[in-house]
Amino acid sequence: MSHKTINPASLPKPSGYAHGVLADNTVFLGGQTALDKNMKIVPGGIVEQFTQAFSNVLTTLREAGGQPEDLVTVTIYLTDVDDYMANGREIGRIWREMAGTQYPAMAGIGVTRLWQKEAMIEIQGIAVIPQR
User: Fold this and answer.
1) Using only C-alpha atoms, what is the Rg of the chain?
2) Phi-psi region at 39: left, alpha or beta (left = phi > 0; alpha = psi -120 to 50)
3) 129 has which bridge partners?
């Protein structure tokens, strides 16, 4: 099986990791926090951080040749599950704007903290790109 590292130029330059790996037609999307291109966590709360983190995931997926509907699984790590749930309607609206209404298998996991101290959310996923 061949594989290719996917590191979009519009995302922060990775050091010691890859934003994604394309293996045949499967894209393994590395965990994305709400880092902007300047390596800073975006200001605001969970909604703003979700938007940036999910945008980073989709940027990597598109760079690999995929589309949001190709996502087969997404895992969301959260430092405050209650905050995420309290903003669920807004986050759902943003998801639909960014990715449509074809949902992958999903899991939400509460964690004590993430790599960047200010990060509230990290999103990773797997996508399978069909022959188009």
Assistant:
1) 14
2) left
3) none
The residue count for the chain: 132
Distance between CA 7 and CA 61 in Å, rounded?
Answer: 10
CA distances from 124 to 20, 31, 54, 132 (A): 10, 4, 9, 24
Among 34, 29, 62, smallest CA distance to 46 is for 34
Question: pLDDT-derived band of residue 44, with 50, 70 and 90 as boundaries?
Answer: very high
Categorize the per-residue pLDDT at 15 as very low, low, confident or very high, splitting at 50, 70 and 90: confident
CA 105 – CA 114 distance, rounded (Å): 22
- What is the per-residue pLDDT across 53-108, written as a single tens digit (0 to 9) for each? 999 999 999 999 999 999 999 999 999 999 999 999 999 999 999 999 999 999 99
Residue 54, H or E segment: helix 46-63
For the four alpha carbons of 31, 94, 109 and 84, in that order, the dihedral sign comes to positive
Residue at token pair 């990715």: 99
